Amino acid sequence: MMEVARECALAILEEDFGPLVAKVAKVLFKCSCTMQTLVRLTELSPEQVRKSLLVLRQHHLLSYTETRRIFYTINTQTALLRNRFPAMCHIVNEQYGDMEQLVLETVLLHGTISTCFDFTASPCRECLRIIASSLGEEAAAVAKVLMFSNLHQELGNDRDVPVALAHITVHRQLPSGSGLTPDLTEKWLKLLVAEGSGMFHAGRSGLYYFDLKTAMHLVASLQLERILADRYGQESLRLIRLLLENHYLDQDQIVRMAMVERYAATRVLLNELFQAGLISCQEIPKSADRAPSRCHYLWHADHASVVKTLQAQLLHAITTAHFLLWQ
User: Fold this and answer.
1) In a domain, 108, yes or no
2) 227, 211, 99: which is closest to 162 by C-alpha?
3) Does residue 319 share a domain with residue 285?
4) pLDDT digit string (tens) for 206-251?
């Protein structure tokens, strides 16, 4: 996983900053180095290495520790985050406008605050789409006030402290022409608490607040299911979901609980998911010789392993796309 992430990050840095910076980054991905070591391993001039380090530092990709000498370290996750810059700009354009997008593009281009952009607007927008499709546009308008009040407050406060609003405050912040009365706004808030998948809560004194962590977990789960369905099909998604919920199951239990018509086809799907590293198999011998024909097999899926496997696959795809585009 880490090797794939480094290859992907290196492809992104080479595309953004050129081959000299990528050459320095390639060495730093392997280990922390002093400037003298970088000059020797990259075979670049001290001036080229110094300028490359300045570029990486300017874009918040480089950190250092100082003892007797200064050792430089590169941040792989921050480098991977650069691949999401276009999506960030698109969200700002839709939410605020062209001028605000231009400001963000300028900031990201120069690297001044590239790691300070709060990307939580993306899961909130996805949650709004879910609410609009299930409860309607009026419920989504009410939910939007709670969500983005929470996001704006988070820019200067701890995320663990949610912003709680009274129903009358939510009503006042609704766009003009919404057609909602204070009583109707309160009814929608109560419905969001009851049907909002744990994203909305009612506190004391009639205050309502939005739980960002639950929303991000919900959106991440939905995105994970979309990727699994696109890559492996709906039947495979059903099997993985079943194993995530019930942990260890044999094939007979899987066929019965997943309501799959073809027994042989289920074994093919399980083998495919096993080869992809998405599920595992526990072998339970029925005899001392542990012969495969006399073993009971239990299938298992772990959420962290599924996420890690899909991340590696997506990073590999991004890396391949970068290399193909720049050949």
Assistant:
1) no
2) 211
3) yes
4) 788 888 788 888 888 888 888 888 888 888 888 888 888 888 888 8
Domain containing 52: what range? 2-81
Candidates 157, 192, 5; CA nearest to 83 is 5
> Which two three-digit tokens encode residue 118?
């709060």
Planar angle of CA 159, 164, 166, nearest 5 degrees: 165
Q: Could you tell me the CATH number of the domain that includes residue 201? A: 1.10.10
Q: Assign residue 306 the CATH number of its domain.
A: 1.10.10.10
Give the three-state DSSP class for 191: helix
What's the pLDDT tens digit per position in 276-316? 888 888 888 877 777 766 778 888 888 888 888 888 888 88
| Residue 89 located in a structural domain | no
Cα atoms found within 13 Å of the Cα of residue 286, Cβ hemisphere only: 8
Residue 97 lies in a domain: no
For helices 182-195 and 137-154, angle between their N-to-C axes, nearest 10 degrees: 80
Q: Say what the pTM is.
A: 0.58
